[in-house]
Amino acid sequence: MGGSSYYGLFTKVPFIESIYNTYYSFFDSIKNGVCFGLIFVCMGAMIAEKEERIVSKSPMWKTGIWCVVFAILLAVEAIAVGIFDWNTKGVDTIAMLVPFSFFFFSFLLKWNIKGKDNLFLTLRKYSLLMFLCQRIPLSIIDMFFGESIIATNSMLYFAVVLCATMLISFIIIQASKKVKFLKYLY
User: Fold this and answer.
1) Within its chain, how far is the Cα of 112 from the centroid?
2) How far apart are CA 59 and CA 112, in angstroms?
3) Could you tell me the pTM of the whole model?
4) How far is residue 57's CA from residue 50's CA, in Å, rounded to a whole number?
5) pLDDT tens-digit readout, 168-179
6) 105 shares a domain with 33
């Protein structure tokens, strides 16, 4: 979080600022598997391993309430980071994302959806492809639309990147039915 959402706050301490400057001289972003994804991979493994206990531990409505509480706290935290201008590297890793993710996934596991195995398998394909393909529209917008309304309006930027990434993922999944090696992407 200190290298992303709270970068502007943490780098007020000279020693920490020099650590981040050294890190950023080697890596372009804090968004790598070690810094960004490790806690979520560990959480997913824990939920998968202890799913039965997590799902049966509390009723769905309690999990839903916790999910809403942490969603509100997540929004408040993101707004605060923006207001205090700590987000010079992006608002993408904030503290409330962890408990919100835990309760959200626990809530989804409790939800009895017909055919959820097929649904979740499809969503897994899309989530992996969207993660892998998001750089394509991001780079195109940065290269060709750098000063346009798309690049300067964060909500529009998000919507365009999301839609383009979903479209690319959909095309890859559909094309993989004919071109089998594309399935290795997901």
Assistant:
1) 25
2) 13
3) 0.62
4) 11
5) 999 999 999 999
6) yes
